[in-house]
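Can't paste images in this forum, so I'm doing it all in text. The chain is below; anyone willing to post the predicted structure tokens underneath?
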Amino acid sequence: MATARYRWVVLGVGTAAQGCVSAAMFSVAVLAPELRQEFQLTIAETGIVLAAFTIGMTPTLLPWGLLADRIGERIVLPLGLGASALVLAAVGLSRDFEELVVLLAAAGALSASVNAASGRAVMQWFGPEE
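Text version of the structure:
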């Protein structure tokens, strides 16, 4: 019985982690006007800032998935999410455009762990019919 309830915990944790990553990714768009003013960004630079998180995330999805297969999602998910949170905190201290883009890309690269690990965890606890 405890195992049946645990799968809902896994789903809840996975959903919460995905929500955190989505909030981080989409908050950049909400902050775009303020970022543009603070960093004196052109429209093109603003577009780069808006894409930086996703640009960092895309090439790291496969490596995070392979790592989750090797060491398990219980380690990969909190490791990547925690490291991403630290990098996102550093984003607030960015001094220029280049640093902002690099830190957002790094946060995205670390956040990709959530996509790989949470999906894998949920699929293991729920059957195809669910």
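The radius of gyration is 17 Å. The chain has a mean pLDDT of 92.
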